[in-house]
Write a sequence for this structure.
């Protein structure tokens, strides 16, 4: 039985990292960890991607250009998936979706489909799976690496990445990794979800509002 108290993240028990420090810290741990998986849990439905021509094209309604740009990333993601597998440190991702999809999630699912096709393990779950757990508000955005470190990833009100709070308590990291792994097990493959639901949405603006 899930112990919700085991998932509580007390900011005072972690270390606040500015954006540059978070990226540096993440890269360091990601490079050092071999033979143990990583996990990502995405709950928010609205973000703002910076330096993403594909997202910008999607926002302005140019779906063809957006998808074309995503297609150019196949080689990049295939290389990452292969390297992760060789190191035994596969990075798993769980994306929560609420229907109807927000414009951002709709675009992101196109991106996740590409990544999944390239060998990245990504699954989708409906918001109904986690909503009973959200007695005090939406669950946080989480990244964990190899049982060693967990980040509560932070965003501005506008959805811009704003650093993270780092936690290293082994029990806390294990609790979250087990929780995300459980969601992954019941999730739907990103490609299957995309083909079943997203592929039938033809107007890139129809989800706005």
């Amino acid at each position: 039985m899930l112990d919700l108290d085991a998932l509580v993240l007390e900011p005072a028990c972690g270390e606040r990292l500015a954006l540059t420090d978070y990226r540096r810290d993440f890269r360091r741990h990601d490079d050092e960890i071999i033979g143990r998986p990583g996990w990502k849990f995405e709950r928010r439905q609205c973000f703002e991607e910076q330096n993403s021509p594909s997202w910008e094209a999607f926002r302005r309604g140019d779906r063809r250009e957006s998808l074309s740009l995503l297609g150019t990333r196949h080689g990049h993601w295939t290389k990452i998936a292969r390297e992760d597998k060789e190191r035994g440190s596969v990075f798993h991702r769980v994306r929560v979706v609420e229907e109807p999809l927000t414009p951002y999630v709709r675009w992101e699912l196109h991106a996740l489909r590409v990544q999944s096709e390239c060998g990245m393990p990504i699954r989708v779950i409906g918001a109904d799976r986690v909503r009973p757990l959200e007695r005090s508000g939406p669950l946080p955005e989480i990244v964990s690496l190899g049982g060693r470190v967990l980040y509560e990833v932070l965003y501005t009100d506008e959805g811009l990445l704003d650093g993270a709070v780092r936690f290293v308590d082994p029990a806390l990291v294990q609790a979250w990794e087990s929780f995300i792994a459980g969601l992954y097990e019941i999730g739907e493959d990103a490609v299957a979800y995309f083909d079943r639901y997203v592929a039938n949405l033809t107007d890139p603006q129809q989800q706005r509002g």
User: Anything to note?
Assistant: The domain at 15-200 is CATH 3.30.870 (Endonuclease; Chain A). The longest helix spans residues 170-186.
